[in-house]
Amino acid sequence: MQFRNRYGLPTWHLLLTGLSLSNWGLAIPVEDSPRQYLLAGLELPPKYSQKSKSPYTPGFRDPYDHAVDSVGDELDPLPYRNGFGASVLGPWNPERSRQSPDLVRPPSTDHGNLNNMRWSFADSHVRIEEGGWTRQTTVRELGTSVELAAVNMRLDKGVIRELHWHKEAEWAFVLDGQVRVTAIDYEGGNFIDDLKRGDLWYFPSGVPHSLQGLGENGTEFLLIFDDGNFSEESTFILTDWLAHTPKSVVAKNFHLAPEVFDHLPEKEKYIFQGSLPGSIDEEKPTGKGVKKSKYNFVHRMLDQEPHLTSGGEVRITDSKNFPISKTVAAAHVLIEPGAIREMHWHPNADEWNFFIKGRARITIFASEGSARTFDYVPGDVGIVPRNMGHFVENIGDEPIEMLEVFRADEFRDFSLFQWMGETPKKMVVDHLFKDDPENGEKFWNKVKGAEKDEVTLPEADDATESGQREL
């Protein structure tokens, strides 16, 4: 069997032709990437040569493992690091490699066999319905997402996510648009409210509720469930229940004749186009037994006053300021270009990250000499198991907007910087700088204030020489 290219020529014929042309000094068309030049037996052009500034060349040196924004800089990552590595000659996905440059060329500090901690919603199956869609990331998609699961859902104008309930508690962040939520509480009180971008809702286990897109473009939101094994397909849905209950029983339950229910839906509606609702005052129930819930199931997260840091801002929402949210706590974090979410860890829960904007890298330290670095772009999910040290670095040219979500009633973290400053000087210096007292003094003078800076941006005079060079 002979393999042929798109011009119908056998592969051997094309290779011989390419060699002949190269001997005559004639150019042949090559896809513009280092790998394709090498496959064709051609010299790398100047922008990919050892004298170029690309970090993905044999002669590039970076002993400090600086971040590389291969998406923003339109680079083609290759597995070269400080004189080691080689080009790639086999099959290659350049788009994937640009989104995960630290998998293609890991920092020299990575070591061990840490499980995968990254998933993109772009790889999740999309269920398409009338006027909307949904996709999920659970332990089935991302094996390390054991504590929390997520659903990304879109509802167009007037479209309804039908009346339903879950075994798990449901926490949600509105990504865009407007949405109306309805529910009843454990005491039979009803709740209705309209939410916008940055608002939250939380429905405890078993609380029945509905969602409906409002405004011209409806809504899109992120749902979080407090069990990684959750499945959107396991939801308890009103129409599904009635379709699987004898109509004689339904009739008895509602004190009506069975024929009243002859045209009930034969299966679940799930997501469907509904009638546009009026205002809350126009729509709220007014029957004899109706009562208003004394609980507040929503919270205006982005309306909170942010905690400002040197490199961004943080908003924390947990049971302290959103009392009903007993099983989910969260932080909304903005990280400016050049800044990092400082080195830290969480003692009470795994961290479940969702990236809304920007490009980031995270190195996770798992003890026993194990560490692994992952890169994230908008729509990606990241996991950091509890107590594992990590940071979030902005490697792009725009702010990162992200959610840190936890299966916990309170947000808790330990700051490495603060810990160092709260520890006796001799103890710290003996650990880190016993044979380097001059730099030990510099370090101590920096940390001794023990001032926590959750998103930190080094001052210009704090910057060190890059250590990057070409050979």
Radius of gyration: 28 Å
Residue windows where pLDDT falls under 50 for at least 5 positions: 1-30
Task: Describe the largest sheet.
Answer: 11 strands, antiparallel
Helix/strand class: alpha+beta
Tell me the β content: 25-35%
Percent of residues in helical segments? 10-25%
Quaternary structure = single chain
Average of the residue pLDDT scores: 91
What is the total tally of β strands?
Answer: 28
What does the overall shape look like? globular
Q: Tally the helices: what do you get?
A: 10
Rounded to the nearest angstrom, the distance between the terminal CA atoms is: 45 Å
Describe this protein's structure:
The chain is α+β, with helices and mostly antiparallel strands and 471 residues long. 15% of the residues lie in helices and 32% in strands. Strand 16 and strand 17 (312-317) form a beta hairpin. Residues 1-30 have low confidence and may be disordered.
SSE layout:
Elements: H1 11-23, H2 34-39, E1 60-61, E2 80-81, E3 84-85, H3 94-99, H4 101-104, E4 118-120, E5 126-129, E6 132-137, E7 149-155, E8 159-165, E9 170-184, E10 190-195, E11 199-203, E12 209-225, E13 236-237, H5 238-243, H6 247-254, E14 271-273, H7 280-283, E15 298-300, E16 307-309, E17 312-317, E18 329-335, E19 340-345, E20 351-357, E21 360-365, E22 371-376, E23 380-384, E24 389-394, E25 400-406, E26 414-415, H8 416-421, H9 425-432, H10 437-447, E27 455-456, E28 469-470
Antiparallel strand pairs: 1-28, 2-3, 4-23, 5-6, 6-7, 7-12, 8-12, 8-13, 8-14, 9-10, 9-11, 9-12, 11-15, 16-17, 17-18, 18-25, 19-24, 19-26, 19-27, 20-23, 20-25, 21-22, 21-24
Helix pairs in contact: 9-10
